[in-house]
Amino acid sequence: MHTGRSMRVPARESDAVRDHANFYFAQQDLLEERAAEAGFARTIFRPQVVLGVAVGSAMNPVAALGAYAVIQRELGLPLRCPGHPELLTECTDARLVAAAIEWSWREPRADGEAFNLANGDVVVWRSFFERLAGEFGMKLDPSPQLGRTAPLAKAMPEHAGLWRKIAERESLRIADLDALIGLSWQYADILWAAPAPPRVPMLVSTIKARSLGFADCIDTEHCILEHLRAMRALRYLPQR
Q1: pTM for the complete prediction?
Q2: Domain ranges in the chain?
């Protein structure tokens, strides 16, 4: 999808395109080479947007969502969904990834296979922001924001001083906004951007794993809120 080409929906594991440099496939090739030499089993998992508690990550939408909401609230602004109003996404909870890995240890048919991995539902970000506003005690600005706001990677770092004041007032563990978010502003901008033409959502099939017995699932909206609450409990984000 990142090459700008259209993809099958839902994409199956066999649809992966390997005609360009991609470090995931480089890692897979190395793993398969070492497995052949040493004789160990291996399984490839391809999760969608991974959700979890992480600090300084390059790809953590949870931290970006939390910090964005806190900054908007501190500025006295309603919560605005910065992305495409019709965008929907599949995600994968980090706990689901862990469960799939544990399952693969016990399932001989998983050896040598690649599996797409997702929570089992989709999230429409504009709808989710209604719940996010409630979680942070904010009003929601329901108007579409696409094209009306600067990318988060440009706008949010300008509030580093404000975040430091919040962190000092609320006794947060990390006062440096960049240290908390890492490159996740850029990642969030990519997640919430308008789909490339033809406008099809980036959805994958998880039937392969389910047909072999891995049927775990989790509510995406609920798990995002769970991780945000965990980040509050750990004092990475302020209380309500």
Answers
A1: 0.91
A2: 41-233
